[in-house]
Structures are given as C-alpha cells and as structure tokens.
Amino acid sequence: MEIHGILKGKFGFDQFRTGQEAVIRDVIAGKDTLAILPTGSGKSLCYQLPAYVLEGTVLIISPLVALMEDQVAIMKKNGEKRVVALNSFLSYSDKNRILGELDRYKFIFISPEMLLQQNVALRLRSINLSLFVVDEAHCISQWGFDFRPDYLRIGELFEGLARPGILALTATADDKVKNDICRYLRLQAPAVHQQSLDRPAISYSIIKVDNGMMKTEWITNRISSTPGPGIIYVASRKRADELSSLLQEEGISVASYHAGKEQEDRAFIQEQFITGEIGWICATNAFGMGIHKNNIRQVIHEHIPHAISSYIQEVGRAGRDGEQSQATMLYSDDDEGRTRFIVQDDIPQEDEIRNYESLLAANIPPDEAADLARISETGRRIIDYYTERMSMEDVISRMKELLREKEMQLQKILRLIRSETCIREEILGFFGEESVEKPKYCCSACGTAEVHWHIGQQPITFDKRMMDWEERLNGLLG
Prior knowledge:
The chain is α/β, with parallel strands linked by helices. It is 45% helix and 13% strand. The strands form 2 sheets. A 7-stranded parallel beta sheet has the order 3-4-2-5-6-1-7, sandwiched between helices.
C-alpha cells in the first residue's frame, strides 16, 4: 500500500505534518536518518508508518520507562497489539517470556541498559529487525556524559552487523549535538531532516525577582488567576514537594513529580495530569519527555535551566494544539551560582578520580569505592565508561573538558537572560535560525508577552474531596 493510503487507513490522517513525509521516505529506503522535529510534530509516526511497509520488527530504544510504557499504551489503545516494552521493571519470568516470543512483535521498546545485556542482545540478533530507532537521541549528547553513559554504547551494538537503517529522533539539536548523535550511533551518510524550532503560539517571558519567597508569591498569584494546565519546573526534588504543598494550601490543583517518588506514584500522577484531574505539575526535569498532552497552556521555570536545548525541550511541551500558550522563566541574582553547582556536581574532580581508581586497585567493590571517594552514582558511571576506553590522564582531561562544556551551556542561558533583544530571536539564533515573522504575542523583551486569555478559560482548583491513588485503587478493586 502507498504511504498515503497507510496514513489514512492505519492512522486516520489525510495528510502528513510538516517534515514527516520526507523522513518516512528515507527510512523506508533504508537510509540512516536523523530527524530533528519540534515537540508536537508527530515524531512517532516516522517509525510507526514505515513498520507497515518494511518486513520484520522495529526496535525502539527509549530513555525512560514511563516514556516507553506511555507509547506502548497509546499504540495498544489505537489497535496495535504486537507491541511490547522491555525494561528493568519487568519480573524475571515476564522478561524471559517476552524474550522467548520476541519474533511475535512488530514493535519492541527497550531501554539502553536492557539492550546492552548480553542475553538480550543475542536474542535480538536472532530475529528479523527492519529498523533501529533511537528516540530522544539528544540524550547521547545532552545526557549521555553526565547521566546515561549506556546511551553512548548503543552504536557499539551495531558494529560489525549487517544491520537495518537507523532512525535517530529528537526535538532539538545544535551542531555539536548533531555531530555527537551521528558519531556515537555510527550513522552512515545519514539523511538529516531539521524543521524550525520556532513555536509561534508560545510567548516568552523572563522575569527577575529578588528572592525565592517572591518566586513563590509570583507563581501563586499567576496560576490562581490564569488558566492551566501547566508545568512548573524547579531545581530540586525537595523544592518540588515544598512548592506543591504550598500551592495546594491555596486551593490549587497541583501535584509534585520527581525521580524520588515510587514508579507507581509517578505513573498515577502523570495519568491524572493527562486526563485533567490535576491542573498543574510541580516537577524536576524528570517530567515531561514523551508526555502526550496537547493543551498545556503554561510552562513556568522557577530556576535557570541548565542549557538552552533543555529549556526548549521543556517549554515546547506547551501549546501542542496550536492554541496560545506562555513560557515564563523566573530568576534572581543568586540563581547563577546555584545552577552552576547543580550542573557541575556530578562531574568528578581529579582528586576524586584518582582516589576512586586507587580504591579499585585495592579490590574495593565499585559502589563502596565510589562512596569512599565521594563520587555520585552518575559520576561513577561516567568514570567507568571512559576508563574502559582511555588512560587515567585522558579520563581526567575529559572530565575537565566536560566542565568547560557545562559552563559554556550555562553562559548561553545567562546571555539569554541578560539580553535586551527579542527572546525568540535569541533562542533561534543559538540553533542557527532566524525569526521569519514575530507573532502577536512574542516576548517580554518586545513588550508583547502577556497573553489575553480567552473568556471561559478558568484556573483549575483543587477539590479536597479528590481521593489519593491508594483510595481510588481500593475503590476500583472493591
């Protein structure tokens, strides 16, 4: 069937969104492809549609369990039953059962850590794989060094194989990130498709306040008088819980979300937000990737983001329905030092690295050695990745280079905050784009940021009678 027929018959759409068709044609042709499409542009169709043209199974490598589970649920709801997620939350028996019947599935979602397990990799090589997909591929560059080194190892799996094409998907990528993706995935003469990052329906505001107390006051007033749904990004788990509690006391429908919560709690909070039972999420950057909610009206940052790319990812979750939305960043004078500490904290220092290696040489187990050397779990993963590939002195040099890269990213954010020129133009300029036409609601620097919300859009208030997830489950199960 011709791809337009599949688009209509399988997905119910009459036409492709901007950028989709060209990507899909290259994927079907077997080309390695890098697709940089903004949030809400339908990246998942770029591998789902080709799957119905190509013979075999599509393997989708996804960074977060919640993200892959969400995508699996959506596909099943839409009628595709030949889909499964392989991740660390599976029981031993469920994992073995799925591995034993892998060839039954058309779509397999998998985490990078699971992918690199020897028994899983061997089993995958025994089935007919028609396409490798690396979702949220910016993780290779943005997260890979300081969060998920296993993302850097994905390309090693493909080495020496007569492999199918690889599709790398992301919403944002500057030249460095594009180069990292192509290099670490070992893409061969890739077709690169990049759509504009500009989101005319989002207006941008950057507001200076004196201190954290004023941030809380501003946020409370803001979301008490303007409509949600919305996301408030904060710098720490503690702050997410604290701010959420303060807002609940004001009658605002809000919940906190961060990696410190149990998986079941996070899944339930996410579902309540998607269905509209909760109006606001107060979250660390653990929330939002892959969230399918089109009507988010506001994204508020209570802190300075770590990088322009992560900022664009986060604010891009607003206004996916094309309706007017607003992105606001609050900052105070002491935010710069706090953000610098957070972004550099996980990168091990020279004395810590040398201490860790000497402890390992003394046959101290890695976890214990890292604790004694005062190295975080993330830092240990970074060191372990690089010590497999280079000398001690080169590892230390690499860590210093990472610190410089982090500082450069922070300086770009600070430049954005301090600039008096159009915020939209500044953001696009970081990615080599130009603003073609300014929308009616542009930014605070242009004096056109404040949205005149439609009559009938009201703030979502907190119903104190709303049961928590345990009560609701008990009610459902009797």
